[in-house]
Structure formats: structure tokens, C-alpha cells
Amino acid sequence: MELEEVYRRDLNLLIALKVLIEEGSVRRSAVRLNLSQSAMSRVLGRLRVLLNDPLFIRQGQHLQPTQRAIEISNAVNQPLESLRVLLSPTDFDPKLCKQHFTIATTDYAMQTILPYALPRIYEQAPNISLEFPPLQQDKMLNQLSSGGCDMAICRPAHSIEPLVHQKLGLVSVFCMLSKSHPLAGKEITLADYLAYPHALIAISDGVKALIDSALNGYQKPKTVLRAYHLEAALAIVDKMPLIITVPADLAYLVAEKHDLIVKPLPFEFKPFEYSLIWHPRCEHSAEQVWLRNLLKEQCGQLIDKRVQEMGLL
User: Fold this and answer.
1) What separation in angstroms does the CA of 109 have from each of 32, 126, 155, 258, 269?
2) What's the predicted TM-score (pTM) here?
3) Residue 26: what are its φ and ψ, rounded to 5°?
4) How does DSSP assign 25-42, residue by residue?
5) pLDDT tens for residues 17-69?
6) Closest C-alpha to 17, from 146, 173, 193
7) 225-238 residue pLDDT tens
8) Chain Cα centroid distance, residue 85
């Protein structure tokens, strides 16, 4: 299509398409764009004619975008974001910011990293609101493109292109034992680690796969408990000689609180990178840049502090 033909099209309709995908509702989209519901319905009709696709399928009260709608929305993300930045004021004062940020996180990040950063965030921007939905590794691209999330904090488990990322710091893993454990007063050997029962906690953020890789060629540790939260393992850690292997700074917090002993792994384990991840559409947003820089600063300080305190490197 020639540029002149593009000029004759109503490109505002593409903004309406993105709003419809984000809201999943004609009524909510109408409120957001300051239109009547009937006017928003007409906009949707014009979109369907322009793009020659139904664009949405109704599922109960929710509009489910078609594959074509998602493809178009993803394709216009960057140009629309560039226009938004071009037309936005350049000065940004976090104290005046009232934006709602949605950050997809793992349980590990929620329990260890974010509590350290939150006081500083709200100190600088007391009027913002934050939401932390669970991170879905296999759906991260969707969460950060059309799923409503602004950024994610996690250990990327696979290729994340075309997403952008910035390293927050290195995370390793330690073992936790009760003070009555037979290994409490001695250095753990590899034979000990493989012989005693283990608790597998989902909060470990993919740590099990990394440990399995490090122990390739040896027998697998005996797992007697699998749970999503540490509380299940903590409830029985005094009842049986359990080894709980978790990210090191989580061990740092939990051991102090529950009077447990922290031990290093008895085999070589390469610390893994924890990252802040976002979609290119958010690259130049002043609000997003401010929040990313603050998270990077605070989380990086925390991870570096614990790396030094726990002798991880």
C-alpha cells in the first residue's frame, strides 16, 4: 500500500484496537476513550471492515481477540509507543505520577527482592499503584505484550526475544537444615547430600533443573516432599532429617527467622542471573524508565549485598 493510501485511512482505529484488546470489553474501552458504548461499537465495526477480520470472539462478558487481532496489535506496538513518547511531555516527576504498574514476578522475587525495593519506590512515588501477578514462563511474551504486564522479574528459562532484559544480579542456592539434623555440625559431602531426604519447593524458580544438570551422572536426590510454599517443608524440618535447597538469599531470610542452619552445596553450582524484563513498547516511557532504574538499583544492591555476606562467589 502506498503512503498516500495509508494517509487516507483512520489510523486512530489502531489505537482503539489496542484498547479493546487490553480491556476485553466494548463498555470499558468506551469509558477509556471517552466514547459512548454505541460509538465504541461502531468503531469496532469500522475496524472489522478496515482489517477484514472479525477481530474478537465473545466469550461470556469478555471479548477474546482473534489471532489476526493479536498479530496486528503486536505489529503496531513499537510505532504507537514511539508516537506516544514523541507527543508526551519530557519532564517526569515521580511524586506526581499516578500510574498503575503491573510487574509479573516469581514467588522468590516477591518474598526476597521486592520487599527490599518497595519502601524506596513509594518514597519517591507515593501516588502510584503496583500489582504483582504470577509470572508464567511459557507465556511471558504474551504477558508483556498484550497481557497487561509492564515488566517481569525472573530467571529467564528460555530465549526471550524480542523482549528486552537487564541483569539484576547473580543468585546461587544453599541448603537449609534444622539444628537437630545429623549434618548440622559437619560439612556436607556429596554423598551426604544424595543420601538424605529432600524437600522440593516450587519457589526455587527452576533451581531443580539447574541442580539436576550439576548432578548429571550421579543418582538423583531422594525427594520426599514437593510443595509450592516453604511452610510445608518448615512444618516437618524438625521431624525428619530434611535438606531444603533454595535460592541463597531466601535461605538467608528464612534461616534467620526459623532458627535453621545454612550450608553451602557440596558440589559446583554456577550462580544464575536474575533479570528485569520488558517489552520494547515500554523502552522509552519516562515512567517505565524511572521504575526500571529504581528496581535495578535497589535489587542490584540487595543481591550484591547478600552475595558478599554469604560468600557466594
Assistant:
1) 32, 22, 10, 20, 20
2) 0.65
3) -65, -40
4) -HHHHHHHTT--HHHHHH
5) 888 998 899 999 999 899 999 999 999 999 999 889 999 998 888 899 999 99
6) 146
7) 988 778 888 899 98
8) 24
